[in-house]
Structure to design on (286 residues):
């Protein structure tokens, strides 16, 4: 026996064949993997991969469809524009028509007004002529009288009343006829008929027969019409005593220098002569 046999050997123990084969296989696999990876990396480095998107090819049909769509869009736009132009033209025409209609109505109204004014003037002239004729007739039919008593006035009114024409609405004769019919009625302060009167109440009622509404008091009646001088007084004019606007008595001129009034409680409604009791002024409402 060797003298070193008892000393453990420093040499590595031998590996078994199976272990060595296993290790060799693992190493070979690793090397194979690395080789493949390296080859792939080399290939990738040599030829970089890029992504390519293929565009669709425009065929004849697709081109026609696109052209048709563009034409349709243009036609729609043209249609909208044409419609907008038509609507604008229609609105302008309607506005002009309304303006023309308004001008025509205004012109027609002016013509109508002018005709109405001409007719009113014609009627007024005819009424003035008729009243002038009535005043002339009524004035000449009144018999002259120098007295101013109530009895003389009553006798005169009785003889003159038959000469007055039948009253007509809106005429002087309607006023005079009404006044003559009240001769002999009583005078009562504030009286407005039918059988008793004061001076302004009688005058107001008389002119109502001619469709004229006079104010109630003597003061207001003295300024109710157009002032006329006593030298130009006509039948149907209102006579007043006192100042215009402050008159204390009124009567109506009936022609022939006479007037009719509700005089006072002692006389009642009578016809009197102006020479015996001259008026202060006169106004004309007819």
């Amino acid at each position: 026996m060797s003298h070193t046999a008892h000393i453990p050997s420093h040499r590595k123990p031998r590996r078994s064949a199976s272990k060595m084969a296993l290790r060799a296989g693992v190493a070979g696999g690793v090397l194979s993997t690395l080789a493949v990876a390296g080859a792939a990396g080399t290939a990738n480095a040599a030829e970089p991969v890029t992504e390519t998107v293929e565009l669709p090819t425009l065929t004849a049909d697709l081109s026609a469809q696109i052209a048709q769509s563009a034409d349709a869009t243009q036609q729609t736009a043209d249609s909208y524009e044409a419609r907008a132009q038509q609507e604008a033209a229609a609105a302008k025409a309607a506005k002009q028509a309304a303006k023309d209609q308004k001008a025509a109505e205004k012109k027609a109204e002016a013509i109508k007004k002018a005709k109405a004014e001409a007719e009113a003037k014609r009627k007024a002239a005819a009424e003035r002529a008729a009243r002038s004729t009535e005043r002339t007739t009524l004035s000449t039919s009144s018999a002259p009288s120098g007295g101013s008593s109530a009895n003389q006035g009553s006798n005169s009114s009785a003889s003159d009343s038959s000469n007055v024409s039948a009253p007509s609405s809106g005429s002087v004769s309607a006023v005079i006829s009404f006044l003559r019919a009240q001769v002999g009625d009583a005078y009562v302060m504030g009286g407005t008929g039918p059988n008793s009167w004061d001076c302004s109440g009688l005058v107001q009622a008389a002119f109502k027969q001619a469709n004229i509404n006079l104010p109630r008091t003597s003061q207001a009646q003295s300024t109710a019409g157009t002032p006329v001088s006593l030298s130009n007084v006509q039948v149907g004019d209102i006579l007043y005593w006192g100042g215009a606007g402050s008159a204390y008595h009124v009567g109506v001129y009936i022609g022939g220098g006479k007037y009719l009034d509700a005089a006072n409680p002692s006389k009642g409604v009578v016809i009197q002569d102006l020479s015996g009791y001259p008026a202060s002024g006169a106004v004309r409402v007819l």
